Amino acid sequence: MTNPVLIEVTRGLLVESRHRGAVAVVDAAGTMVLEIGEAATPVFPRSAVKALQALPLVERGAADRYGFGDEELALACASHSGEPAHVAGVERMLAKAGLDPQALRCGAHWPIAQAAAAAVERTGAPSALHNNCSGKHAGFLCLACAMGVDHAEYFRPEHPVQREVRAVLEDFTGTALVKERCAIDGCSVPTWAVPLRNLAHAFAKFGTGQGVSPERARAAARLRHACARKPWHVAGTGRFCTEVMQLFGTRVFVKTGAEGVFCGALPQQGLGIAIKCDDGASRAAQAVMAGVIARFLPLDATERAALAPLLHPTLRNWNGLDVGAVRVTDALQ
Amino acid sequence: MTNPVLIEVTRGLLVESRHRGAVAVVDAAGTMVLEIGEAATPVFPRSAVKALQALPLVERGAADRYGFGDEELALACASHSGEPAHVAGVERMLAKAGLDPQALRCGAHWPIAQAAAAAVERTGAPSALHNNCSGKHAGFLCLACAMGVDHAEYFRPEHPVQREVRAVLEDFTGTALVKERCAIDGCSVPTWAVPLRNLAHAFAKFGTGQGVSPERARAAARLRHACARKPWHVAGTGRFCTEVMQLFGTRVFVKTGAEGVFCGALPQQGLGIAIKCDDGASRAAQAVMAGVIARFLPLDATERAALAPLLHPTLRNWNGLDVGAVRVTDALQ
């Protein structure tokens, strides 16, 4: 099956580029509410499931033990831009468990935020703290400490921390995460491919608490509320996830993943969302997510206007001239 | 028509992302030698035609008048990384025509090269000199000076410089560049959409000198040889265009464009190449170009080995682990 074109990128009067992809919107009972393209093929969710990967941190009592507030929990779910308060927050998480930043095994990269990268460059080179996944890794490390296990190899599939994470992912997605579908993520932890429909179902359960244990539902709600209250900590200045959650609070949970993946939940509608752009383009996955929100979330005029720049971004060149746009196709209507 | 998948990006044992696109390989007589996907749809060539846009600079005598050598001519054809010697070269081009960098109207952006961006950040902000198109713009400005016309608005479609450029593009592509197919490029000059087959034909003519006037053929050869001798000036450290032309010299001319466009010529085979990835991905267009070169250019074992990392790049994560690969599909065989 060939997935339909979901996004067109225009320049002048013509369509310059096209992005194909698939969308699944599923309710907490597992009923498919919207299926566009192929939703049965396994897809690596990458960072889009960080909030699920953070659940053991809460469920196992580590978050309470180390006194984590909304900022720390949001950082555990984040692909952050490496801005100073992100880095400081991750350092604080580690310090609360008596850990040093050296324990992070995510690898180093320059902060996503240009200004933050420039500031880092002035004094040295980026560290693992600047990696967009450092909050998730700090969460893993704190979980290892709270579980009383050696944290040194916390990123390996067979480590107790990753076994916990895997069990949570299996519970939410309703799939067996087998070795053949396991690959290594950008930050070196395992990523298991899961069909889009199962990812959407997982986020319907995450958003509603239905279909999982009461403890798990409470942990999910705690993470969702933390992200809704501290959306800047989930991504950063000017980032899509941050702007959407700043706009809608607890009504929308969204999380981006590499290679054109996006997951989300509309808790009041009881819906979970999973998107994969075939070619891995974030610009497309974002606009599709905005399109799904516009379709399923009741919006007032102000909210609709605020969502418009995310749904139909204008493309400007280096002189600030309007040269084209990103637009959602009829396939999403 | 749906273009075929040309590139697969793997992670672990699975294909994570896919890139569709079209390829045209045409000889100097205009005969299609290879057509994959849709080659009749107009495509914005963007920076892939910079070498054609630089022809009036040579033909009108401006390059001689200002004493341009290979480096300056390569910069006029370049999408450079903004490294110090690129910036110095562009400044030198402007100075030779008595112009100040303030005359550049391409807009400013951070150097593509991370180290160069960091160095710029230490002392201030990027200028138009760091824009990857600044060499092309310096060429336009020098052409305006040599033509004795006011250079202030050299980037506008109706300016004599852009009229010259347009005439050259029409001659090479054999198409009328009409207003409806004109849009604004990232650096604010016009870009006209042209079918892929015409772009490929244009580069067969550019590579062989056939089908254009003797003066134009000599100007084309001069630019090709300048790029072959100074490939670092066409792109920069570690960049695909630079590495390919360092490897093959005058046997291959290649030039990237934004939004997944790539053009090139194999002069000894008398072939022109034009590629467009539907989704605009450079990683895909590059690997497709490497695949076309591997198919049509006779290679010895050493050359084949040297081309392999461009044809089948390994993907490494932030810890340097091998997590996947980019691979050309059978559609290109």
- What is the SS-derived class of chain A? alpha+beta
User: Strand fraction band of chain A?
Assistant: 15-25%
Q: In terms of quaternary structure, what is this?
A: homodimer
Calculate Rg of chain A over CA atoms. Answer: 19 Å
Distance between the termini of chain A: 20 Å
* Sheet with the most strands, sense and barrel status of chain A: 8 strands, antiparallel
Largest interface comes to: A-B, 50 and 51 residues
How is this structure best summarized?
Two copies of one chain form a homodimer. The first copy, chain A, has 333 residues and is an alpha+beta fold.
Report what the structure shows.
The structure is a homodimer of 333-residue chains. By secondary structure, chain A is an alpha+beta fold. Helix content of chain A is 42%, strand content 19%. At the A-B interface, strand 2, strand 4, helix 6 and strand 5 of A face strand 2, strand 4, helix 6 and strand 5 of B.
Please name the defining characteristics of this protein.
alpha+beta; two-stranded antiparallel sheet; homodimer; globular
Write the layout of secondary structure elements.
Two copies of one chain form a homodimer.
Chain A: E1 5-11, E2 14-27, E3 32-36, E4 42-43, H1 50-53, H2 55-59, H3 62-65, H4 70-76, H5 84-96, H6 114-123, H7 134-147, H8 160-173, E5 182-184, E6 190-192, E7 194-195, H9 196-208, H10 214-229, H11 231-234, H12 240-248, E8 253-257, E9 261-266, E10 271-277, H13 282-296, H14 301-311, E11 314-316, E12 322-328
Antiparallel strand pairs in A: 1-2, 1-12, 2-3, 2-10, 4-7, 5-6, 8-9, 9-10, 11-12
